[in-house]
Design brief:
The chain is mainly β. The chain has a single domain (11-131), classed as Beta Barrel (OB fold (Dihydrolipoamide Acetyltransferase, E2P)). The chain has 1 helix and 8 strands. The protein has one helix at 14-18, and strands spanning 25-30, 36-37, 52-57, 60-69, 81-88, 95-100, 113-121, 124-131. The strands form 2 sheets. A 5-stranded antiparallel β-sheet has the order 6-5-4-7-8. A hairpin with a 2-residue loop joins strand 7 (113-121) and strand 8. The relative contact order is 0.20. The protein binds zinc ion.
Length: 139
Amino acid sequence: MPGLPLPDAQFESLAFWTGGERGELLIHRCADCGLWLHPPKPVCRRCLSLSVAPEPVSGRGTVYSYTVNRQQWMPDVPVPYVLAVIELAEDPALRLTTRLTGVDPAEVRIGLPVHVVFEQAEELWLPLFTPIAEEEGAR
Ligand SMILES: [Zn+2]
């Protein structure tokens, strides 16, 4: 979406913002206890291990919460658009905040099955989410 400011991608968050170039949603995970860590951190919050590195996830999840933005905050950004918290399939506690794409805001609901799609913006690949088509057997 033109006009939205890009995230500040650096250090440990770089993998998250650039994995989409290879079609991968990369989430940091602790190699010692298996905990997924998002937003990315260099230290595991559960076992304090430093063996933390990005790993690809399935890119599937469900809408945990969402809001429809109808306010024209920025002149270049078309409204309405949907901001959502996605619960990733790997762990119910693994959630990320993103934007939904390819969906009528009126059709969005809690629990809607979604999968990641990447939108390139300069050198970054923004992980957005779109509903999984019903013919894919999501329901
Ligand atoms: Zn750990």
